[in-house]
Amino acid sequence: MFEAWGRIVQRRRWVVLALGLIGVAIAAAWGTGVFGSLESSGGFTAPNSESQRASDLITRSLGRDSADVVVLYRSGSQTVDSPAYRTAVTRTLAGLPASKVVSNQTYWSTHSAQFVSADRRETYAVIQLTGADDTARTKSFDAIKSRLAAPGLSVRTGGLIPTQESVNKQVSGDIGKAEGFSMPVLLILLTVIFGSLAAASLPLAIGGIAILGSFTVLRLLTLVTSVSIFSINITTILGLGLAIDYGLFMVARFREELRRQATVEDALARTVATAGRTVAVSGVTVAVALASLMLFPEMFLRSMGFGGVATVAVDVIAALTILPALLAVLGHRVNALRVRRSVRQPRHDEQTGAWYRIARSVMRRPVAYVVVIVAVLLVLGTPFLKITWGGTDARVLPASAQARQVTEALSHDFPANVTSPIEAVVQLPGPAAAPAQQAALTSYVARLDRVTGVTAAKVTGVAGDVARVDLRYAPDPTSARARGIVQRARDVSPPVGARAYIGGGTAELVDELASLGHTLPWMALVVAIATFVLLFLAFGSVVLPIKAIVMNVLSLSAAFGAVVWIFQQGHLSGLLGFTATGSIDPTMPILMLAVIFGLSMDYEVFLLSRIRERYDMVGDNTAAVASGLQRTGGIITSLALLLIVVVGAFSASGIIFIKLFGVGTIIALLVDATIVRVLLVPATMRLLGRANWWAPRPLRRWYARYGRRETEAESAGPRVPESATA
To answer: Which letter does DSSP use for residue 345 in this model?
Structure first.
C-alpha cells in the first residue's frame, strides 16, 4: 500500500504540490488568526463539580462577581485617610465612561478594611466591565486602561481581564521568539547531519507547514469546542518537532535509496514503503498517547488532546504527501548545495561502528548496568514524592507583568484572602429575608465559623433564596491546609431543607485534583493497552511492550523528579529566569506523561524494528541488539538533539508552566535518548535473551497473519543519515 502510494505521489507530484500550496495559503491567511479565538482564562476547573455549581448559582442569583479589573493604587507619603488620596482615586473612577464600566468598589464606597493594606498607603478598586463575554470585556478594558491613573499615586492593573490580555501577548511573543531562534539553529544542525543544504531545508519546510497547520487545526476546533490559549505552545512544539523527525526519516531514506534504485520513482516508492510506514506507525503511537488526554473533563487537557492529535495528523499527512512530492521534484538534486565535498557512506560492516562497540560493552556487564541505571533513575525521581499541588493564576506570568505584581501585592500586603475566599453558597428552602431562614442561615454561618482553620465566616450577599458566605483563613489558598479547610467546610450540615455548595479558588483546586485522580488511572490503562497492542503488532512479542512501558515510567519519574526539584523547590530559578511558587500545577505532569510517552515510543519503535529485523535474519539476540543500535544510534541521538532545540526554544517562555513543560521534556528526552536507549535497552535485552521475542502460541499465530513485518527486500540497507553513522 505504501509503495503504491509513493508511485502515485511521484507521478502526480505537481498536483500534490499545487494542492499543498493552496492549503498553506489558506492556513497562512486564516489559521494565523487563531489567537483571537482561544480561551485565555480557565480551563482547569472540573465541570459539574461542587465548586462549579457554586459559581453557577452565584452568577445566576447574585450576578457576576468576578473582579474584571483590580486597580492597585499606592502613595509614597499619604494614607487612605487623606482627603487628597480619596479625591484622586474617586474622581478618576467617576470619570470612567458608563458605557464601559458597570460598577466599581473601593474602600470609600464599602468602608471595608479588606481594601486597605497594612501600612494604609495602598488600596485597590474592583471594576466590573460591560460586555457579554471576555472578548467584549477586553475591548471595554482597552478603552479605559489609559484613564486609570490617579494624580500623585502609582497605579498597577490586574484582575481577570488584564491577566488574560497579558497571557495572550506573552504567548504570541514567545512563539515568535522561539521560531526565530529555533529555525536557524535547526537549519545549521540539519546541514551538518546531511552535509547538504538542499536536503536540510526539506524537514524545515515540513516544520513550517506543520506550524501553520497546527494553527489552522486549532482554529477549526474553536468552532466546535473551547480551546485553551496555552495549546498554541504545545501543539507548535509537537508540530515542529515531529515534522523535523519525520522529515529526517524520509529524506535520509530517500538519499540511500537513490544509490540503490535505478530510477527516482523506484527510490521514492521504496522510501515511502519503509520510512513512510515508520512515520505512519509513529504517528499512530503518538496520537494514541495524546488522545488519552481527551478522557479528562477539564477543558485545558481536553483541548490539548484534540489539538495534539490533529497536529500529529497534519505532520503525518505532510510527511506522506508534500515531502514525497518535493523529493520527486528534486530527485538527485536533493544532494545539491553541499557544504563539504563528500559525505561518508553508511558502513555496511556494522562491527566497526562506535554504537556497535558501545552495545557490546554494555552487554558484557548487563546486570551492573541495569542495577546502577535503575537506581540512579529512581533516585532522580525521589523529589516527586514531595510534590505540592497548586492552581494556576497570574503568577504564571513573568515577574515584570503588572497583573502578577497586583496578585502578589494583594496576597502580601492586604488581609488574607481578599480576592480568594472560600465561598459557601446556600440555596434555602424559602426567601432568605424570612425570619425562619435568617435564623437557619445564622446557625449555619456559626457552624462554619467553628470549622478548624476558618478565621471568620460572614454573609456577603443575599438574593431571593440564595446567600453567599465568605470564609476567611490563614494558609496559602493552594496549600494542603487550605484544601483541608474546604473538606471540613463541606462536612458541615446545611440548614434543614437547604443545599450548600462550597466554592472559590481553593475549592476549585480540590475538585480539580479529585477529577484528575479519578481519570488518571483510566488514562494510564488506555495508554498501556494501546502501547502493548501497537508494539505487539510491530514485533510479535508480549515481553518487549512490557519492558518498553517500564522503561518509559523510569524516564518519566526522573523527569518528574527534576521538575519538582527545579520549579517547586526553586533550584536553578535564577538561571532559568522564573520565580518559584512552591507548587506544581497538577495538569502539567499529566500533559508531560502523554507527550513524552508518545515521543519515547517513537524512538522505541525505530530501535526495536531494526533489532527485530536483524534477529529474524541471524537468530542471535546479542548480535541483533548490537546491530540495531549501530543502525539507529546516530539517528536517534540526532532526532533527540533536534527536538531538544525545538523544545528548548519554547522553554524560554515567560509563562512558567510552559517553561516547566519544556524543561521537563528536555530532561526526559536526554534521559531517554542516552541512558535508556543506548545503555538500558541493550542491557535488559541481553538479560532477557530469547525471551525478548516470546509470545503465547495463539498470539504468535495471530502475529504471523496480521502483524507488521518487513520483507527481506524492505529491510535491506541501513536507515541512518549518511553523516550520522559512527
So the answer is: P
Instruction: Choose among 257, 255, 241, 259: nearest CA to 198.
Output: 255
Confidence at residue 657, expressed as pLDDT on a 0 to 100 scale: 80
- In degrees and rounded to multiples of 5, residue 611 shows phi and psi of -65, -45
Q: Give the tens place of pLDDT for each residue, 388-442.
A: 888 777 777 888 889 889 988 888 888 766 667 899 999 999 998 899 999 999 9
- Do residues 597 and 610 make contact, with C-beta atoms less than 8 angstroms apart? no
Taking CA atoms, 721 is separated from 190, 664, 679, 680, in Å, by: 10, 28, 22, 24
Per residue in 693-716, pLDDT tens? 898 988 888 877 766 554 434 444
Identify the three-state secondary structure at position 672.
Answer: helix
- Number of residues in the chain: 726
Sign, CA torsion 520/388/67/218: negative
* Pair 80, 73: CB distance under 8 Å: no
- CA atoms of 142 and 480, how far apart (whole Å): 38
Secondary structure (DSSP) of 509-557: HHHHHHHHHHHHHHHHHHHHHHHHHHHHHHHS-SHHHHHHHHHHHHHHH
Query: What integer pLDDT is reported at residue 40 of this predicted model?
Result: 62
Alpha carbons 483 and 491: distance in angstroms, whole number:
13
Contacts of 604 (CB under 8 A, 6+ apart): 535, 548, 551, 552, 677
| Location of C-alpha cell 465559623 | 449
pTM across the whole model: 0.83
Q: What are phi and psi of 224, to 5 degrees?
A: -120, -15
Confidence band for 603, pLDDT divided at 50, 70 and 90: confident
Q: How many whole angstroms separate alpha carbon 10 and alpha carbon 104? A: 66
